Amino acid sequence: MAHPRPGPNLNKIAAEIGVSVATVSNALSGKGRVSAKLITRIRDKADELGYVPSLAGYALRTGRTGVIGLVLPDISNPLFPQIAQAIEFAASAIGYGVLLADSRGDVAMQTEAVNRLIEKDVDGIVIVPRRGTRIVDIGCPVAVIDSPSTPGNTVAADHWQGGQAVVEHLIGLGHRKLVLIGNNPSSTVQNDRIGGMRSRVRSDGQAEVLWIERLERERGQGCPLGLADRIARGFTAIAAVSDLHALRALTELHRAGITVPEDVSLTGFDDLTWASVVTPGLTTVRMDMPRIAEIAVRALASAIEGDRGNTSPRATIATSAEVAKVPMQLMVRQTTAPVASPSRTTDPYTLEGKSLC
Amino acid sequence: MAHPRPGPNLNKIAAEIGVSVATVSNALSGKGRVSAKLITRIRDKADELGYVPSLAGYALRTGRTGVIGLVLPDISNPLFPQIAQAIEFAASAIGYGVLLADSRGDVAMQTEAVNRLIEKDVDGIVIVPRRGTRIVDIGCPVAVIDSPSTPGNTVAADHWQGGQAVVEHLIGLGHRKLVLIGNNPSSTVQNDRIGGMRSRVRSDGQAEVLWIERLERERGQGCPLGLADRIARGFTAIAAVSDLHALRALTELHRAGITVPEDVSLTGFDDLTWASVVTPGLTTVRMDMPRIAEIAVRALASAIEGDRGNTSPRATIATSAEVAKVPMQLMVRQTTAPVASPSRTTDPYTLEGKSLC
DNA sequence: CTGAAAGCGCTTACAG
DNA sequence: CTGAAAGCGCTTACAG
Questions:
Q1: In this complex, which of B61, B277, B349 lies closest to A248 when CB atoms are compared?
Q2: How far apart are CA A102 and CA A74, in angstroms?
Q3: Which residues in A305-344 are b (16+ Cβ under 10 Å) and which e?
Q4: What's the Å distance between residue B56 CA and nucleotide D7 C1'?
Q5: How far apart are CA B134 and CA B151, in angstroms?
């Protein structure tokens, strides 16, 4: 015996009112031509009974579940919450659910994650790929969120422009000798950011790039980055490709007795939770995740709803180019200041001229 | 005309082999008694055709979707990734998908989020409730992840014990006068942590609690916490209910020229990503999220699979008590040291006695 | 404007 | 050991 659902179904409503299920279905979906009176009667009855349509029935009939998958590369990436929230928001706004799949940084796992989602009959997939992974054609619409340097059907923050914005800001404050901190040069995101930064260094200036992973291979995990040394050699600003690295730099500087921003300016990337919590607040660059998510989800939705299997299953994100780039936004906070500013102008226990303690 | 799925279905397999769908279904699920030969033939054919069972068909027939919902209170909570990953891992390990719903910190939104999930026919819901919310009976199994002080069907980290562990550690290092930093006393989690801490302060010791939100209401956002002042008055250790607050304390101390752990010991809570990145690494306490997730998901699964609608729709997490408590684990790193230790024993540019720069 | 009927893919008693 | 049949809840041509 089949397992009936607890709540009322179309049959129940139809029986109560004395019409056919077809009419109830039409009235509720607003598709068939049903008389205005009947429509209200049916809707009222549905509300009265607390009718919730069965996704299973709908899905079986239409071939669509109203659920999209979200594949994330590595939860340890602190950007994860922003992405997940933005996708969930954009999706639920147009009636889609979001099924989560974490690939835990493993390429094989990523494929497995995609398969798990397909087994759950998702209508499409948003994927933030593991570094260096290319997404092959899977049998459903796909939208990729990655670096714009990644070929494929991608939406991305414009990391290059973000890098430019940071360095323009520093240059505007008079800084000329910059230390740029990256982690791994094989990351296209990091490369874009560093590339954008370098492109804005002035010809009378200088930029030295520090790749943390390379340094740590030589000197061991958590080794000092030698920042004090560089500052002694005249560098006045440090720009990191992530708030995480900026924080590491900040604490290293503190321990060396170097003050931020009085002695050196410092910037991060991504505007992670604590970037605004630390004192002084970290100047950083923020991705417009809501916008990125909206583009990805909309592309997916139109591929799902528009193309009835006759076109490629790949969602179309950008019509002209292959990639949609979304600008990043500079968040100026207190870790950046004009070069050679008079040291410590504010008493640490005074805020906005008002004594606090 | 109904919308056929792209891939093969049971009919297809049945036709190719020349048996009935019932037999194919039985062979694949291993339920009915089918001859060993037929089973292999059918399985091989299914593999060959790349058969993926239709969740919609299964769901419609059985009333189960194999999907559970995860309701999160507020994405700005940096604990989110750990929770989401752990739940996804535990769920996918036993064949369940996880549908995400973010309630964005709003109580009304939380109800909406639950409804969205129910409309997607989830079999059960794991919910991390918004502070102060009680979960009412919704028509499906529910598991709550919260503070153990929350009544209801709850799994939780043992925040009280975590607080005890921190203070025991500090006491063991000789600290007697402690500053405890919380944010909001109306949070049961924070109260549990602070409570646990206080319960381990020795009778010859002293603990002063600082509630940040209260302070900020008086003195404004981001105001100094007056830590230097307390240290001058003989406090030698600071324990925060969150790494976030510990980080804020750390930067405030740095700016006041106070060194950690030489001048004062500092601890956090939650072991957020950057707790191990900062220099020195932050001593903190970690939740056993994998364990918590497993308990929650298992409870849900057994409520879904076991109870056939005859018992309460609430999942049973803890049989004896109402709450399952999972111990927290102390992560000792470099921000804690014995009280009155000789100041700065290591050169900052030397690690493990080896010169690095 | 309304209804009868078919069928999406699956599972489960039941009969053979 | 295997199969015919019913039915989960829905939508959509089609007929009236």
A1: B277
A2: 7
A3: eeeeeeeebbbbbeeeeebbbbebebbebbbbbebeeeee
A4: 15
A5: 8
Mean predicted confidence (pLDDT) in B214-220 = 93
Distance CA A87, CA A184 (A): 27
What CATH number labels B10-53? 1.10.260
How far apart are alpha carbons A11 and A22 in whole angstroms?
9
For residue B270, the number of C-alpha atoms closer than 13 Å in the C-beta half-sphere is 20
Q: Are A97 and A91 in contact (CB under 8 A)?
A: yes
* Mean pLDDT calculated for residue range A275-292: 90
Instruction: Write down the pLDDT at residue B65.
Output: 93
User: Do the bridges between strand A97-102 and strand B97-102 make them parallel or antiparallel, or are there none, so unpaired?
Assistant: antiparallel
CB contact B81 to A (< 8 Å): yes
Sheet holding B265-267, edge to edge: B206-211, B177-182, B237-240, B265-267
Find, among A284, A224, A278, A281, the residue nearest to A255 by Cα.
Answer: A224
Rounded to the nearest angstrom, the minimum Cα separation between A196 and chain B is: 26
Tokens 């996708």 — which residue? A87
DSSP class of residue A79? T
Q: Where are the domains of chain A?
A: 10-53, 67-140+289-326, 160-287
Check: CATH 3.40.50.2300 for B160-287? yes
pLDDT computed for residue A345 by the predictor: 43
Nearest to B226 by CA among B205, B255, B204: B255
Longest distance between any two alpha carbons in chain B, whole Å: 87
User: Residue B299: what residue type?
Assistant: A
Q: Which among B62, B181, B255 is the top mutation candidate for probing chain A, defined by the most A β-carbons within 10 Å of its own β-carbon?
A: B255
- Angstrom distance (rounded) from CA A252 to CA A258: 9
Same topology between domain B10-53 and domain B160-287: no
What is the arithmetic mean of pLDDT over A90-96?
Answer: 94
* Protein CB footprint (7 Å) on chain D nucleotides: 1-14
**Tens of pLDDT, residues A115-173:** 999 999 999 999 988 776 776 777 888 998 877 666 667 788 999 999 999 999 999 99
pLDDT at A199 over 90: yes
Decide if pLDDT at B154 tops 50. Answer: yes
Residues of chain A with Cβ-Cβ distance to B270 below 8 Å are none
The predicted-structure confidence for B6-53, as pLDDT tens digits, reads as follows: 788 888 888 888 888 889 898 888 876 788 888 888 888 889 988 989
Report percent pLDDT > 90 for chain B: 49
Q: What is the pLDDT of residue A331?
A: 96
Q: What nucleotide is nearest B12 when CA is compared to C1'?
A: C9
B317 pLDDT band (50/70/90 cuts)? low
Q: Given the structure tokens 């598991």, which residue do they identify? A: B143
Residues from chain B that touch A117, judged by Cβ atoms under 8 A, are 97
Q: What is the structure's pLDDT at B348?
A: 41
| Selection from A224, A303, A136 nearest residue B349 by Cα | A224
Give the nearest chain A residue to B254 (CA atoms): A254
Q: Which CATH superfamily is domain B67-140+289-326 in?
A: Response regulator (3.40.50.2300)
A29 in reach of chain B (CB within 8 A)? no
Nucleotide of closest approach to A9 (CA, C1'): D9
